Amino acid sequence: MIKTRPAHRRDADEAPRCRHLTRDEFVTALNWSTQVGSHLGLDDSAVFWAADPEGWWGIELDGALVGFCGTIAHTSDFGSLAGPYVLPDLRGRGIGSATTPFFLQHLSSLLGEDHSITTDTSPGHRRFFEDVGFRVTQVGMRMSGKGERLPWGPGPCELRPLALIPFDEVEAYDAEHAGISRRDLIRRWIAPAGGLALAALVGGRIAGIGVIRPSREGYCTGPLVADTPEIAEQLLDSLCSHADGQVMALDVPESNSDALTLAASHGFRTGAVIVRMTRGPAPNTQWQQIYGFNALHPG
Description:
alpha+beta, Aminopeptidase, 2 domains, 13 strands, acyltransferase activity, transferring groups other than amino-acyl groups, GNAT_dom, Acyl/Acetyltrans_Enzymes
């Protein structure tokens, strides 16, 4: 049984404690985040845990779990911070402020000297991360729509299941556009149970990838990356057809006007705003070819 703390005022002499999460605790923690708006796939906990089981931390008060954070080292010079997340009834009491320096110090210790750390957050938490050295590198529009079986027609490329494409080619294409290598994460991301993962091929070369995976409310969409708007549209048409009648969530970079236009043309409407922030050199992300980005972490 996982012990969680009832809401009450934190005593002045109480200090939060950080420790590694067990697998069951990690699943519980992710479920907390979905209750306040995080849109995660049904199998995302298995994907994130397998990518780095040592990267997930619990925050305790008096031996009870009250929050969590992820410190994921994707490469020797790039990592991501997922959180810290604190139970809503205990927010505003300095728990996040007290634990964030530990999480950043730990993650930095896993990386090289000129490393980068990225995080996704809400506009309301922007100042919090600015105070510990982060700056805004992208704004994402969380858009939602409904899948629809669209008429088939010839497109600019051939679509094939991503699982049939040599993984090294898939990973290289993702790394080229994301600006960093996410090999362990992407390996598990491209085969979503009950979802669809496609590669767009032009002359035998990858010119786009598109993935949707089942969620509690329908489907999460992303990554959706393409060399041209026409290829992105062909991929999105296929993903929408797979999700026929179901809600689809799509996180679109605000700086890509073609992506915003494409989403709107398929009936997607803007909801929440996501702020991507970076501490250190920003990855060379090819935002003009990203039509839907998947989070590097839950948050």
